[in-house]
Amino acid sequence: MKWKGILAVLVALAGVGAYAGNVLATGSKGQTTNILAQATVDDLDLSGHQMTTEVGPDGRTRPNGIWLAWIKTHGSSDLYVVDNKFAPNGGTSGWHSHAGPSIIFVVAGTVTNYSTDEPGCAPQVYTVGQSFVDPGGDDEHMIRNEDPAVTAETIAVQFLPHGVDRKIDKPVPEGCPA
Question: What is the CATH number of the domain that holds 38?
């Protein structure tokens, strides 16, 4: 009988801890998410280079530099293409992080990104046709639509270690907006 009492107390404490963790996380509000594509791939070692060119005053094309890109992973990765829509007047992703980097394209409206990578979580505003990078890892961020009338939309391409949660809800970081 004594063990049943101890077990009940332990279960209750675990429940309270799980509840407190969920209460502290901010979660999304006014956001809809649609996974457009998802794949798991083995080690990535993508590299590319291109001689960039410009047109000179004489109308001829000439080289002006070299463009390089490199993405390398060790172990399997989960890749996602994610469509997020944010309702007008405060639709938000809530504070969260990702285990890997994301490239975010704004395809409708305007979004404000608040990130712990910016001093004081200074807002960065992005409009249609612009993009930004979420480095993942320790960076925590929140995307919000502050336009009072227009729905905002982003498309994100995410690179994550295989098997991890795609999004990890977080509490509001100290000194950052809710």
Answer: 2.60.120.10
